[in-house]
Every structure is written in structure tokens, then in C-alpha cells.
Amino acid sequence: MLEVQARAGVARVATFPIRGVPVTTPNVLFAVTTRHPAPSFGDVLLSEVPLNDPRPALLDRGSMFRAGPKGDEPMIPPDSARPSTLPDLERPASEGATVVVASATGDVEAHPESDIVVVRDAVAYLRRPKAFVSAVIELRRAMGYARLLYAPGLAVPGNLAILAYCGVDLVDSTRSILESTLGRFHRADGSWDAREVGAEVCGCPACAPAGAGKDLEGHNGRALLEETRYVAMAIRAERLRELAERRAVNDPWSTAVLRELDLRHADWQEYHAPVAGRPILAYSAQSLTRPEVLRFRRRLVERYAKPPSTRVLVLLPCSARKPYAESKTHRRFREAVWRSGNAHAIHEVIVTSPFGLVPRELERVYPVAHYDVPVTGDWSRDEIAVLQDDLRAFVGKNRYDAVIAHVTTEAPFVSEIVPGAIVTAKERTTDPDSLAALASALSEAVRDTAKVSAQIRTAEDLRNGAVFQFGAEGSALLEGATFRGRYPNVRVHIGGRQIGMFTDLGKMSLTLDGGAILSERNLHCVEIEDFWPEGSVFAVGVTGADDRIRVGDEVVVRHRGEVRAVGVAAMNPKEMVDLHRGEAVKVRHRAAKKV
Known about the structure:
Number of strands: 30
Helix content: 25-40%
Distance between the termini: 34 Å
Mean pLDDT: 93
Radius of gyration: 28 Å
CATH topology of the largest domain: TIM Barrel
Structural class: alpha/beta
């Protein structure tokens, strides 16, 4: 039975028993033939005949046109070896198969008992990266999350991170063997002609005795296994996306796959991207389209509206320190805002890449409070396009009496979208003259504006946070609410009962009373069997889940409408239902058992 230990999007580190031996994914099946004996390294083997080896193995019956092996090992059923672009031949069913070879949803649905799904004719996708992305997404949707996805004939060290990022659990060494016969020396950052590789380049056990490139098959196999373990480490560290971006620049196929995922399957990626986690590293152009970034930008358009009491928009540059308000630069900006005499009527919005725009009240939301980007003041054309698109949508939806742009290098392309914007910064935004100009412009802009109280503005900001987190129905959590505490740690009370608390993580944590409010609206609910949680809720007890839930979301655990706990989602909704092991919800508060 499969158990997931760590996730990074659709990729996962999981354990799965083969012949009673637990195998960790992602992993490599090392091909064994008469000409290619079993390597001394590796956890799992792939063979056409039973092996006298204690390691678990998959047996490949090969083509349906010839007799296959017999053995107790999990067996890949015979295939027609017909290209996936052509109509399939009629072939015998493999009843009760542990492994099924599939190219379409119907193939998977016909074998619900299978544990491993093999991508049919996978090697053909080396010429069709877009089709590969569509194929693995279609298969994953059909097979669910309780089975392993195996893509044969594709893997080299340089594309393993991309394959895992696509959701592939198992690969094999067949392409690595072929590349070795062609004289290619592989490492994670690409391949070279073995004749050009110096003897001192690699010190792995295959290269050390005679020099790099002498035992190519041994070296390439070890490099494949080493990268698999590195990918697993990246998944555990929530760094797979960054690794995939680094690897993709060395391989055109990987670059095409990553772009296809980002540009044409953004909804699929967003479904698997967490709403909380480690800081993201936005160092490459590809970071502009990573799912966490696109989600934030989409929610800003779909869920966000400016605080109603604000009348003046001030655009500010980002800072290296996050949240921005804690940086020395932004403290100076905020002093200028306060000197205006009506600070709560002013709406501060930060201009940044890769997120475009970040309203001050959302600056602690993941991932905008948790990212690292080179702060140089230089903007690429793509970054400018993102900012201008977002700014155009923002000022089109949110109306202000005045717009002040306290930016330098960003001023020209901000002014293209908001021609009437007042630019107050000189050479540097923190120069005394620039700060004085900012304070003066703000004072003039709010001079005839009605005074806005801190209480009103706080309520508006917190409502924006709840709606950004839960959607429009999240506003119910603040209807008639009173607030206690000092921002950003604010307790929310309705009718004398605490329903939640905003934290310095930029989100609202629920109490059982808050969970009841969401439950009434069937929002972020996880349905369980009839039991009272005493700790975490595991997938085996889950019967259903709201499809709007993302990993890291606040959720309500209930049975037939009765709230039994609140906590944080540790799986996506479909995983909660498909899997039979693993933590589905990290429970924070649980209801007392009713006798």
C-alpha cells in the first residue's frame, strides 16, 4: 500500500512494497539483460526473465507477439508496441494485473486493481513534449494518487527533476544504457561526448579506476541514481520547482515540458501547489509562471477589492526584506504616509516581480512574504508586461482620487498605464528630497478627504485577508466581528466567541466556532467517517473533501454536517479520498466526543 512521505506539487516521495520490500519513489528500475548484468547499485531491477537477486524486480513481458517470462514478480503485461499516435490493436486483457500499460483513460479504468501504470510508447514523447504533458496529466487524473506512474525509456540525469515534477514516480535505465553505447557522458547538468571528458572530471566508482568516461554505462547509471536521490531531497525540502528550473535550462525537451505545464496547464499545477510552505526562490524568467505566483495574481483579480475607505493609491518599490513593512526602507515610506494626516485613507501597494502588485494588507500572505528575488531595479520585458497587465486590471477595478508613484526605474512603465500618476521619487526613493516630495504629495491628496479611523481601516484590511484566503464566502467570518490584539496577531470574535485569529503568517486560523461558520456554507470541508478525531485525521477515514481545498489551507473536519475538528490540509482533496495511508489533516482543535 502506497504511503506518501513528502510532496512538492504533484511530485512525491512515497514508499511502496514490491515483493514485500519497501521501495521509495522516485526511483530507477535498472534494466538487466544477458549483455547488461545487474548493477551492484540500485534498489529495483527490470528484467525479461526472473532473476537470482534479492532486490525486487519488475518483469517485462515485452510484445504481445512473443511469449513472456513466468515468475512471481510484478509483471508488465505484453504490449502491441504500436505507436501511441496510431489506432491500437486489439489485445488480450490482463485480468488482475499489478501493472497496466496505458495511453488513455479507458486503459486505466479497465484495470482498477493495478498498482503501477506504465506510460505506453513513452519514448515517442521525446519528440512530442507537449503531448507528453497532456498524457501524464490525463493518466494521473484517471489513475488517482494511490498508484505509481512509470515512464520507461525517457530518463537521463538531466531530465529527472522535470519527470518527477510532472508526477512520474518510476523511470528506468534503458535510455541511459543507449546513451552509453552512443558514447555520451551524462551528468545532471547535461551530456558530453565521452572523448572530450577529462579523466579527472568524475570520481565515482565507475570512473575512478580508469578515469572518467571509461565505464560509461556504470557512470551514467550511477549518475541517474544519484540525481534520483537528489530529486527526492529537493521534494522533501520543498525545492523541486527551483531544481526543475535549473535543470530545464540545459535541455530543450525539459524546457518545453516546463513551459507547457506553466502556460497551458496552470489550473492543474495550481491544484497541487500549496498555499503555505518554505520561501520560494524566484531567480529565473520561468519563475514568473510558477503556480504559486500565478495563483496570487489571479486571486488579486478575482477575489480582491481595495479597502472601501481608501481614496489615494501610493505605489512603492519592493524591498529585499520580507514582509516589506519590516524593512528600513518601508519604515521611512510609512513615516511619510503618517505625516499626511490621514494615513488610513491611503492605500499602499508594492510594485514587485514576479507578483506584479502586492497590497500592503496582503504582504504577509504566502508566498509574497516568503520569496527571494534579485533586487537590482532592472526589469525584463516579461516582468514589465506582468506589472503593466496587473496594474491596468487593478486601477480599472479599484477607483482612487489620486495615484502617487514613489518609484524610480518603474516610473516610465507605470506612467504608461496611469498617465496621471504623480511621480515623487528622484534618483533614490529614500533620499530626503524624495521622501519630502512623497509626504507633500500625500498630504495634498488627502487634504479634503474625510478622516478614516484606524478601527474602520483595520476591519476592511482583515476582511480583505479573509476573502483572499477563502473566497467571497470568507467574509462571513467577519460579519459583526470585533477584534482584539495588535496587528498582525488579531483575534476575531463574534457574539463573544472567538472564531479565529489572524497571524503573522498572513492568514486566519480557525477555531471550532469559525469552522462552524464555514461548514454552514460547505466551504473547505473534509468529510470523515463516524469517529471523533483525537489527533491528526488520516486519509483512511476521509470520505470526501471540498475540491477548493489546497495543501496548507484551513479546513473543517465534519461528519454529516457535525463539526468534529478544524486544522490544516496536508493533502489535496483527491488524495484525501484516494489514499489509504498518510496524514490528511493536521488537527488544531477538536470537538469533545458526544456520548
